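Section 5: illustrative case.
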């Protein structure tokens, strides 16, 4: 996508909202391998932004940069800028505060990964580590309510989180993320391990959560993107001379534009199921 059309898209969406996170000419490497190149993208407050595109185009790689989770991968490196409320997230100032970055920008993974602890402790543990001094019972209830799980677990808070169904475990992980009061939730294919009913529950939950949180979701499920996302970014990958693949952002716009009237032919082909 050329820079001008990115700017056009940016301005049309900016009129609606302010960006919380921004990628500006962001390229991400694993060692010498350039996985994603020159991404310009804004994530708007209280909106859901979906990343879609074929396997290996760098959706998860970019997502993990938004809370510096890629720092944990040896050899991973970011060029260009990622900013959070206008401040460069990769500045030294944030190096010392990386836990705070990840508290404010939480993450939910593909596979539900509750701690092997009680349902109650799954919520309380992180809050305690983050220095929460308020009423813990209230926080546990509030977080489970927000994650639309309270009614299902209120009578068994001492049971292991691992005793819950997959869909419940994922909502427990969302509750755990919410308990440390983030501003942003990054969700990497949060429903791919769930059955259709649990998937719909998580999607309903996302609609409720966006009133208070900004959400970015990586999804392979295009119906899911159309159901939940306000904005959608379509990524693709091109073959490199060395036989690898390099990801790039093709088009970023309001979800209905991406699915009904995209500007790029590649987007049209992908959303109509012609490749991917
Ligand atoms: N930890 C890593 N070390 C080295 N290369 C990696 C690592 N993680 C991802 N890659 C490479 O970076 C590229 C982008 O991968 P990424 O997982 O971000 O793509 P994706 O679009 O999320 O794919 P999928 O939809 O299959 O999850 C791929 O070529 C992948 O092999």
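Designed sequence:
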């Amino acid at each position: 996508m050329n820079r001008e059309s990115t700017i056009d898209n940016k301005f049309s969406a900016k009129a609606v909202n302010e960006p919380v996170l921004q990628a500006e000419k962001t390229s991400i490497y694993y060692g010498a391998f350039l996985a994603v190149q020159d991404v310009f993208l804004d994530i708007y407050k209280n909106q859901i932004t979906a990343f879609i595109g074929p396997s290996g185009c760098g959706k998860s790689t970019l997502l993990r940069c938004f809370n510096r989770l890629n720092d944990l991968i040896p050899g991973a490196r970011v060029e260009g800028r990622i900013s959070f409320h206008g401040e460069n997230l990769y500045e030294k100032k944030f190096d010392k505060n990386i836990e705070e970055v990840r508290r404010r920008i939480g993450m939910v993974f593909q596979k539900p990964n509750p701690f092997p602890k009680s349902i109650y402790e799954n919520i309380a543990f992180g809050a305690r580590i983050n220095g929460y001094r308020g009423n813990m019972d209230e926080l546990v209830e509030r977080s489970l309510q927000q994650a639309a799980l309270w009614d299902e677990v209120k009578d068994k808070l001492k049971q292991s989180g691992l005793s819950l169904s997959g869909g419940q475990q994922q909502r427990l992980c969302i509750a755990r993320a919410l308990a440390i009061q983030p501003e942003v939730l990054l969700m990497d294919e949060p429903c791919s391990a769930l059955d259709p009913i649990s998937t719909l529950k998580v999607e309903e939950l996302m609609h409720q959560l966006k009133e208070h949180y900004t959400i970015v979701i990586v999804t392979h499920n295009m119906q899911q993107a159309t159901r939940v996302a306000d904005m959608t970014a379509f990524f693709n990958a091109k073959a490199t001379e060395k036989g690898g693949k390099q990801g790039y952002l093709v088009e970023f716009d309001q979800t209905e534009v991406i699915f009904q009237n995209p500007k790029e032919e590649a987007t049209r082909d992908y959303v109509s199921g012609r490749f991917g």
